[in-house]
Amino acid sequence: MRILLVEDEAKTAAYLRRGLAENGFTVELAARGDDGLHLALGEGFDLLILDVLLPGLDGWSLLAELRRAGRTTPAIFLTARDAVADRVKGLDLGADDYLVKPFAFSELLARVRSILRRGPVRRDEVLRIADLEIDPSRRRATRAGLRLDLTPKEFALLELLARRRGHPQSRTVIAEEVWDVNFDCDSNVVDVHIRRLRAKVDDPFPQKLIRTVRGVGYALDDEP
Ligand code: CA
User: What is the pLDDT of residue 211?
Assistant: First the structure.
C-alpha cells in the first residue's frame, strides 16, 4: 500500500513516515502542496494524508485540483483547525476523513486501515426511486430526467439513503458510512449536508423523497 504524505513540518513528517513504514506502508513525502499535487497526479497512491496549511498550495486546493482531474484517491486531512465550518469544507471537497492535531499516531493508523479496508461497493446497478435515478458507476443522478449537480459527498449521502430506501439512517450511521468518522459532538455536519441535498433533490419538485424521521435520522422513500 502506497501513501503520499504532504506535510511541511519536518519533524511531524519524519515521525509519521517512520510510523507508517514500520506498519508496512510505503510512504512518499512532499513538503509543499504543489509538489504533492504533482506526485498525486503522476503516480498511483492508495491514500493521501494531507496537511491543510502548506507552502505552494494548501491542502484543500490540492484535493480540489485532484478531484477536478477525476482522481478519487481517498484522502485524510491533518489540521490544527477544528472549527466545524472548516471540517465541512474539507469533507465537501471530497476528503474521506479528518484528524485534528495533535492526534495519537495509533488514531491515524486506525483511520488509515479503516479507509483502505473499505472494499469496492457494487456500482453496476442504477437505483430508481420515483423519478429519481442514481447511477453509481457513472456518479450521476437525475430527477425527472434532469441532471442533479451534486458534490461527491452529497452523491455518497444520496446513494447511501437510496440503497437503504425506506429504512431510516441515524446521523451516526450516516457520518460513519459517508465520511468514515464519528461526529458524536457535531452531527450538524450531517444536517448541513442533508439540507444542501434537499435543496437540489427535493425543493424543485412537488414530491419530496428525503424524510426526517424524528428522533432517528433520515430516510429516502417515495411514500406519500
Ligand atoms: Ca503545515
Answer: 95
Q: What angle do CA 59, 181, 15 make, to 5 degrees?
A: 55
What is the Å distance from ligand 1's center to 52 Cα? Answer: 6
206 CA distance to ligand 1 middle (Å): 47
Written as one letter, the residue type at 16 is L
Cis bond upstream, residue 55 (ω within 30): no
> DSSP labels for 139-164?
TEEEETTEEP---HHHHHHHHHHHHT
Give average pLDDT by consecutive 10-residue segment, the chain, 224 residues.
Answer: 95 94 94 96 90 92 88 85 65 77 89 76 72 88 95 92 87 80 66 95 95 91 80
Cβ atoms of residues 46 and 73 within 8 Å: yes
DSSP secondary-structure letter at 125? S
Residue 15 parent element (H or E): helix 10-22
Whose cell is 424521521? That residue is 213
Model pLDDT, residue 193: 94
CA of 189 to the centre of ligand 1 (A): 24
Listed in order, strand segments (DSSP E) in 71-139 are: 75-79, 97-100, 127-129, 132-135
Given this model, what pLDDT does residue 188 score? 82
> What is the CA(113)–ligand 1 centre distance, in A?
23
The DSSP symbol for 77 reads E
CA 8–ligand 1 middle distance (angstroms):
5
Amino acid letter at 59? G
Cα 34 to ligand 1 centre (Å): 13
